[in-house]
Amino acid sequence: MNGSQMQALMPILMLSLTAIVLMIQASIKRDEKATWIITVVGILLALWGAGYARDFSQPVTILLQVDNWGLFFTALVLLASLVTVVLSQDSFSSEGGSKEEYYLLLVLSALGAVILIQSSHMASLLLGMELMGVALYAMIAFPKKGLLPLEAAVKYLVLSGCASAILLFGFALLYAATGELSYKGIGEKAALAYISNPLLVMAGTAMVTAGIAFKLSLVPFHMWTPDVYQGAPTPVTGFLATVSKGAVFVALARIYMDAELHQYESLILALSVLAAFSMLIGNLLALLQEDIKRLLAYSSIAHFGYLLIVLIALTGSEMASEAVTFYLAAYILTTLGAFTVIARVSREDQQKSQISEFEGLFWRNKIQATALTIAMLSFAGIPLTAGFMAKFFVINVAIQGSHWFLLSALVIGSAIGIYYYLRIIFSMSKTSGNDIGFRDRSGDITALLLTVLILMLGSWPQPFIAFAGGL
Amino acid sequence: MLMINLILILLIGGVVAIFSERLGADVPRKVALAVVIIDLIYLLIALSTIPQLETLQAPVPSDPETWLMHYSVEWIPAFGIKIELALDGLSMLMVLLTLILGAVAVSASWTDIKVRQGFFEANLLWTLAGVLGVFMALDLFLFFLFWEVMLIPMYFMIAIWGHENRGYAAMKFFIFTQASGLLMLVSILALVVIHHGNTGVWTFSYFDLLSAQIAAQTAFWLMLGFFVAFVVKLPGFPFHTWLPDAHTQAPTAGSVILAGILLKTGAYGLIRFAVPLFPQASMEFAPVALWLGVAGVIYGAILAFGQTDFKRLVAYSSVSHMGFVLLGVYAWNILALQGAVMQMVAHGFSTAALFMIAGSLQERLHTRDMREMGGLWQNMPRMGAIAMFFIVASLGLPGLGNFVAEFLVLLGLFQVDRLLAVIAALGLITGAAYSLLLMQRSFQGEPDETRQLVDFGTREMLTMAVMMTALIVLGIYPQPILDISRPVVESLISFSSIVTGGSL
């Protein structure tokens, strides 16, 4: 490893450094304020590092691949972590006790996500995924009061462990078939191995796909999602929905592109089934929810169904990678926007995330209500929001690849989706007895910034499309 | 720039209206009225300077330079998306109708809206801005954007200030239009992708896409996507079920805008996009569309007859009247199309007025149930007389605008399909039946002497006078409207017959 390779790893190094500094700081003097500041500065440094590393794009050892595409998602994941840190500051304030460890876990989890995004080898993939996951279990269970976080953490831990085991077994099968563990190596040898031993390759890819589908909570691997979303503290839910899922999807996209898995029709068929079920069942089950966090859990299932279409149509379109970039960016920003407001509204008590809690929010806090409205409209894919442009990309890619079946699932799914997104908006516009405005304005700036970003991405997307095209 | 300014004035006016509430509860409505009137005057001044208006040459659909106005600027070059607006005779009529009815709607909200007036008037102005965009946008992406975005302020108007069952109605309204809009989005994108495949150029411009080469089978499906979106909005049978709920639950100003203007965007879309973009497919589909139109005329009338709710009756009568528009469009000859355009304008005025009367009644009686009305003419003679006027206008009394429109449609339809024309003509009879029933139940019969009701005041009389004048002029001297719409209609018909080889 030479100097320029080290420079290429700048974001990873910065995050690691932050983690070490945090540990030292906690052992010298426990001070929540200082921990918070170090975390923020560390993530900002890592963000700077992501920009800095652009000039040094290259494969770093066999394990990591630093390129502009990955660096963009690194920056996005870091941004999401930053928002989570800001939200967390208020969110547990009523908990009592200190939470220095929480920030440390958050930095470690973000580090895992960044490694996952840049991995080009099964070993680094597993390393990143586990680092991210294990830190996340603890973050979910962090609040000391209440059983729900604990239940969520245990559920996530056990099921996620199973998924990792399946994933690992898939790697082993692929290794047995090809003798390779890097994405590219598998891609080169898999075609040959498929002829001599189709079952081994198929079983291997199927298990890898299933393991990743679990992390992305695609139907039928979605059972854990609503409980974990609901049980986890709201900022952590936002972190899980954006950082964890986003990073895993980037890894999946990398495997598909580098290993050229799109040439195996049976795999594409399997992915199509996953996508169609996720879109339809995700949206249908979201209709039944009374808790906004559970609702967003199902909605995220549906959104990853939409996103999967792009992966399936990868070969048929010249703009597929831009579509992935745009959709993930829009999804992450929108999700962050929604959870910022939810965290603010349900701050006093973790259980207050029923939709009825949002009644009259328009007349209580206009900024928060507008932010949540824009986020919901963006999820629903209404023009002028980022979500619409994202859906525009997906539909475009799907039409170019003539995936009419998936397209019809998307249309039906979106049509169902409008109902529950509107339900939240309608609930906010109700005049309830709950009309006391809240004086406290914290969280307004974050919500406002995210809203502006969502609207900008939707109404003036040209700069971003040009940028995404150049990645 | 003029067309952008028209929209911007309304958008900014909406923001001003919100903040003007701090000056007093009754300031927003004055601001809103001023904004709409400024917009109208601005448009009229600009129109008076256009030389083409006097000669009114036929605009060539695929050549923007022959249109009255054309404005185009790059927006998202990656997809060839432009901010492209254009105005011809048809859109000019619709824009004028929108602004006039917009002023009427503000007047209708004058005393009706009692809470959060600022936000209400803002939503009203934003809806108008969206509708203007729909009537002027000639870039399909931009058109779709306006098409969807105008729903949101309308949704808020119903959901916040609507009547007892507003949540359900607003939701239904939004889901129907949004879901059908998604089909249109897929169609638009498929059209663009096919055009891109043929020429290698990304463009959403109407003027370019008119010449897109599409396989007949594909064209049929794409046409269907557009058709469903527009017919839901129209609304045509069997996609009309959102309309009675939305109209009934919306506040008066909302009903005025919905019935007067929003429904016309569906008709406009059919004339401007669905048929010209896919002439061949539309021709094959025309018999089905015509039957749907007739079904709407008759079915809407029968349902209207069975209502006890004043607003619901008027809402169903809209289904019946808009059936004539569908007939006019798919008969696709000069007479029928002119009739359809005429119907769009005339129905806009007559229904808007009826909804205003319904709103005034609800404000005074706190019910829309006609079983609790009766004899109101004695209580409120001015309102009674005006209601009589608009009810006979709506049933198609000769001498008023609606008669001219329906007569032209039937005349044009007769050349295409006699049987259908005969069945559709029954709509005039059923129309008379439910309209007169409406009059009898609410304004005639034994008056309730204990009622103390305030008759129409100056503001209401003035608003009504505008619409009455419009309908009388349309009915007695419809030539100006026909002159404005004729070149557009002729050039659309000749354009589509070139494409289909003269068979349409």
What does this structure look like?
The complex is a heterodimer of chains A (471) and B (504). Chain A is globular and about 65 Å long. Chain A is built from 20 helices and 2 strands. Chain A has a domain at 264-471. In chain A, strand 1 (58-60) and strand 2 form a beta hairpin. Chain A has helices at residues 3-8, 10-28, 32-52, 68-91, 100-118, 122-140, 148-178, 183-196, 198-215, 224-231, 234-258, 265-286, 292-312, 320-345, 361-364, 366-380, 386-400, 404-429, 444-459, 462-469, and strands at 58-60, 64-66. Chain A is 76% helix and 1% strand. Chain A has a two-stranded antiparallel ribbon with strand order 1-2. In chain B, a hairpin with a 4-residue loop joins strand 1 (69-76) and strand 2. Chain B is mostly helical and 504 residues long. The longest helix of chain B has 34 residues, at 166-199. Chain B is globular, with a radius of gyration of 22 Å. Chain B is built from 21 helices and 2 strands. In chain B, helix 7 (151-161) runs antiparallel to helix 8 (166-199). Chain B has a domain at 284-504. Chains A and B meet through helix 17, helix 18 and helix 20 of A and helix 6, helix 7 and helix 8 of B.
Radius of gyration based on Cα positions of chain B? 22 Å
> If strands are numbered along the chain, what order do they take across the biggest sheet of chain A?
1-2
Number of helices of chain B: 21
Low-pLDDT residue spans of chain A:
none
Order of helices and strands of chain A: HHHEEHHHHHHHHHHHHHHHHH
Mean pLDDT over all positions of chain B: 88
